[in-house]
Design brief:
Elements: H1 12-18, H2 28-43, E1 46-50, H3 55-66, E2 71-75, H4 79-92, E3 100-103, H5 110-117, E4 124-127, H6 140-164, E5 168-172, H7 183-198, E6 204-207, E7 211-212, H8 219-228, E8 233-236, E9 240-241, E10 243-244, H9 246-259, E11 264-268, H10 272-275, E12 277-278, H11 279-289, E13 293-296, H12 300-305, H13 307-310, E14 315-321, E15 340-342, E16 349-353, H14 361-374, H15 381-391
Helix pairs in contact: 2-9, 3-9, 6-7, 14-15
Length: 408
C-alpha cells in the first residue's frame, strides 16, 4: 500500500523541539524491526476501533490502515471528528482499505449492537473511548459519566467481545493509572482490573503512555487556540509531564495490540532526567517557535489586559502559577514498585507483565455501590470518592476545593 503521510498534519520535528526532545522517534527501531510481523498480522485482520475519532484514535486508525487490513471499522460519537478522519485518510493515502467504514454512534448503543451483529467476526477490537480530563471529576455528574465511559461501558464491551472471540482486545490506559492521585487515573486503574477479569477467556493488552503533544483538549492544544484567539497562555510551573507525538501514540497502541501477550501493559521508556518537562517550559518554547517572547504576569487579569500592548512587540503575555487544583500530580510515572517489568523485549518500549490475576472482588463491590448511588435522586461526590478509596486503597486523592475550570 502506497502511503504519503500518516501523522495527522503533525510536524514531528517541530513537536519534538517544543517538548524538549530530539529525534528519532521513541519506537522507530522497534517498529522497523517488527514491521514485517505487523504487516502480516494487520493484512490478515479485521479491526473494530471504538473511539477512533479522537487524537489517539485517529493515530491508531492510520497506523492500522497503513498496513492494509482486510477491514477497519471506526465507531465514535463525534461526527465532525469522523468526517475529518476520513478526509485526512483519503487525502494522505494513495490506497485505502476497501472495507474502511466510520459510524457516528455510541459503542453503548442499540445501533452499535445492531451494526456489529451484522458483521463478520472481528479479529481485533480496540477501545480508545475515554474521558481523559482531570477537570471532568469536578462534580458528581461529570464524574459519573467518567465512571460509565472508563469503567462500566468497557466491561459491557468486553462481555460482547468475548462472545465473538477476537484474537485480542486492546484498551488504552494512562500513566495516571500508576499511583493515581486523581479520579480520572483511578477510573483507568479500575479499567485495568476489568481487563484482567476478562483475560481469563479473552486475550487483552493495554498501554500506559504520556500526554500526547497537542492532542485535542490538551493544554498544548490550548496554547494553539489561545494564540489564534489572541489570548494569554496559562500553565502551571511546578507540574512535570512526559510527552509523545501522535505517531508515537499510534505506534505504541498498535504494538501492544498486535505484539502484546495476555495482560501486558506497554509503556514508553522515557527518562525522568531527560524527558520530564514543565508546562511552563513548553509554553515558552511554543511561543519562541511561533516567533514570540514569553512575558510572565502575576495574575490572569494582568495577562489578559496585556495582549494588545505586547503583540506588536512580538511578545506574548503568560500566567505561570503553582498548581493548587484537585487531582494534579507533580510528576508522572508508568509503573509502581512490585509490578513485574520486562525491559528487554523491545528497545523503546517497556512491558509490565501480569502473569497472575489480582483480587477482582473489589470491582464487584465498586459497581454495586455506584449502582446504589445512581438509584438515588441526589448524588454526593464525597461519597463517590470514598467508594474509589475502598476499591483502590493506595489512591492518594486530595480534595483541594478548586478545579481546573477555575483557571484560564
Amino acid at each position: 500500500m502506497a502511503f504519503e503521510s500518516h501523522n495527522s498534519g503533525e510536524n514531528v520535528d517541530q513537536t519534538l523541539e517544543i517538548i524538549g526532545r530530539q529525534g528519532p522517534g521513541l519506537f522507530d527501531r522497534d517498529i522497523r524491526e517488527q514491521e514485517a510481523e505487523l504487516r502480516r498480522l494487520c493484512g490478515a485482520g479485521r479491526f473494530l476501533v471504538i473511539g477512533g475519532a479522537g487524537s489517539i484514535g485517529q493515530a491508531v486508525v492510520k497506523e492500522i490502515l497503513l498496513r492494509g487490513p482486510r477491514a477497519c471499522h471506526v465507531v465514535d460519537v463525534s461526527e465532525n471528528n469522523l468526517v475529518e478522519l476520513v478526509r485526512d485518510v483519503r487525502s494522505s493515502m494513495t490506497d485505502v482499505a476497501e472495507d474502511f467504514r466510520t459510524l457516528p454512534i455510541s459503542f453503548a448503543s442499540l445501533e452499535f449492537r445492531r451494526f456489529v451483529d451484522d458483521q463478520p467476526a472481528y479479529d481485533y477490537v480496540l477501545n480508545l473511548a475515554a474521558l481523559k480530563h482531570v477537570r471532568s471529576e469536578k462534580d458528581p455528574f461529570s464524574l459519573m459519566r467518567m465512571i460509565d465511559t472508563n469503567v462500566l461501558d468497557p466491561e459491557a464491551l468486553l462481555e460482547w467481545a468475548d462472545s465473538i472471540g477476537p484474537k485480542k482486545f486492546f484498551a488504552v490506559s494512562t500513566d495516571k493509572a500508576a499511583n493515581p492521585v486523581n479520579l480520572m487515573g483511578a477510573t483507568k486503574s479500575l479499567m485495568e482490573l476489568v481487563l484482567y477479569r476478562a483475560s481469563r477467556t479473552l486475550p487483552v493488552s493495554t498501554a500506559r503512555f504520556a500526554n500526547v503533544a497537542f492532542s485535542d483538549g490538551s493544554l498544548l492544544h490550548g496554547f494553539r487556540q489561545r494564540l489564534i484567539k489572541r489570548q494569554p497562555l496559562s500553565a502551571p510551573r511546578d507540574v512535570r509531564r512526559y510527552f509523545v507525538t501522535f505517531k508515537e501514540a499510534g505506534e505504541l497502541c498498535l504494538a501492544s495490540c498486535m505484539l502484546g501477550e495476555n495482560r501486558d501493559i506497554f509503556f514508553p521508556k522515557l527518562d525522568e532526567d531527560l524527558h520530564l518537562i514543565t508546562f511552563s517550559e513548553i509554553a515558552v518554547r511554543f511561543l519562541e517557535r511561533a516567533g514570540y517572547e514569553a512575558v510572565p504576569f502575576p495574575t490572569e487579569a494582568e495577562a489578559i489586559e496585556a495582549v494588545d500592548h505586547l503583540e506588536p512587540q512580538r511578545k506574548w503575555p503568560c500566567h505561570f502559577f503553582d498548581s493548587d487544583t484537585t487531582g494534579e500530580k507533580p510528576f508522572e510515572e508508568f509503573f509502581v514498585p512490585g509490578e513485574m517489568l520486562d525491559m528487554q523485549r523491545f528497545h523503546g518500549i517497556g512491558v509490565i507483565r501480569n502473569p497472575d490475576l489480582p483480587d477482582l472482588s473489589r470491582i464487584d463491590e465498586f459497581k454495586r455501590k455506584i449502582a446504589e448511588i445512581k438509584s438515588r435522586p441526589t448524588w454526593d461526590k464525597a461519597e463517590m470518592v470514598e467508594i474509589f478509596r475502598e476499591a483502590l486503597p493506595d489512591l492518594e486523592h486530595e480534595e483541594k476545593g478548586k478545579n481546573l475550570d477555575q483557571k484560564m
